[in-house]
Amino acid sequence: MGLYELSRQLEKLEGLDKIGDPLAEFVPKLFPPGPVKDLLSGTWLGHSLHPLLTDVPIGTWLSATMLDLVGGEESRDASEKLIAIGLLASLPTAAAGLSDWSDTMGGERRMGVMHAASNTASLLLFGASLAARRRGRHGLGVALSLVATGTNSLGAYLGGHLSLVQGVGVDQTAFEEDPEEWTAVLPEAKMPEGEAVKVDVGGTGILLFRSGDRIHALANRCNHLSGPLDEGEIDGLTVTCPWHASCFRLEDGSVVRGPARSPQPAYATRIREGQIEVGARTN
């Protein structure tokens, strides 16, 4: 069985829910919606922060292992420093990953548990390696680092599966089709003031909201994890996703509060011959 097939089997291990579900309920108490959650999610960055942070521990630990193999005795001090830097960098990396993971469900949550378990094993092994080296047991330290490199590589693979196969952290609106031309979606007379209405344009759900003489239009599927915005709360000219509390401005789709990282697609609207029409994206 290859790694891909194994990963698919891990998604189905319901026994992992006994670990994942209670932890996922606890994490929002640590990182509730607000500035810290936005920081860890990468709302300020425009995409997920966690993958960016992983480069530091992976890079430093792999560099330390390479020095162990080819650097000779004079590189031992550099290897220790690289391992220590990786250990420190793993803390914010884990916090960002934990924050992202807490929003998942089902197979994605189970895969995240295994990803975290593998990375935790790497952290402990590299920590033990550093301790052994500083006690003068260099050979044991190198052996522990080699094992840790293996678990870290497995963790990286599972993280890639989460992102590239299961789509965690991917903009959920990326492949929705824009209207190629102005498309009538609703008679103006049926568009109430101050209420959200969902319409369909070529298979893409679009949220309409009327405020005075202007009709706003956003993609209805939240770009974070596909929550239905038409079921969310509208306060003034913002809409909040009912699933994970991402908040967007209705005028232009810009993010008011994460965990969403990128603006929600906004569409042009006009009224013509008594019909509300939707056009191409404006952002």
Which helices and strands, and how do they pair?
Blueprint: H1 3-11, H2 17-30, H3 35-41, H4 50-70, H5 76-101, H6 106-134, H7 138-165, E1 183-187, E2 196-201, E3 204-211, E4 214-219, E5 233-235, E6 238-240, E7 247-249, E8 255-257, E9 267-272, E10 275-281
Helix pairs in contact: 2-6, 3-5, 4-5, 4-7, 5-6, 6-7
Could you characterize what this model shows?
- The protein is built from seven helices and ten strands.
- The chain has 283 residues and is α+β, with helices and mostly antiparallel strands.
- The protein folds into two domains: 3-165; 183-281, Rieske [2Fe-2S] iron-sulphur domain (Rieske Iron-sulfur Protein), CATH 2.102.10.10.
- The strands form three sheets. Strands 5-6-7-8 form a four-stranded antiparallel sheet, with no helix packed on it.
- β2 (196-201) and β3 form a beta hairpin.
- α2 (17-30) crosses α6, α4 (50-70) packs antiparallel against α5 and α5 runs antiparallel to α6.
- The longest helix has 29 residues, at 106-134.
- The chain is elongated.
- The model has no long low-confidence stretch (mean pLDDT 95).
User: The biggest beta sheet, please?
Assistant: 4 strands, antiparallel
- End-to-end gap: 44 Å
Number of E-type strands: 10
Q: Specify the number of helices.
A: 7
Helix fraction by DSSP (H/I, runs of at least 4): 40-55%
- Total discrete domains: 2
Q: What's the shape?
A: elongated
Q: Radius of gyration from the CA trace?
A: 24 Å
User: Which runs of at least 5 residues are low in confidence (pLDDT < 50)?
Assistant: none
Mean model confidence by pLDDT: 95
Order of the strands making up the biggest sheet: 5-6-7-8
Summing up helix and strand content along with how strands pair, one would put the structural category as: alpha+beta
Sequence of secondary-structure elements: HHHHHHHEEEEEEEEEE
Strand content: 15-25%
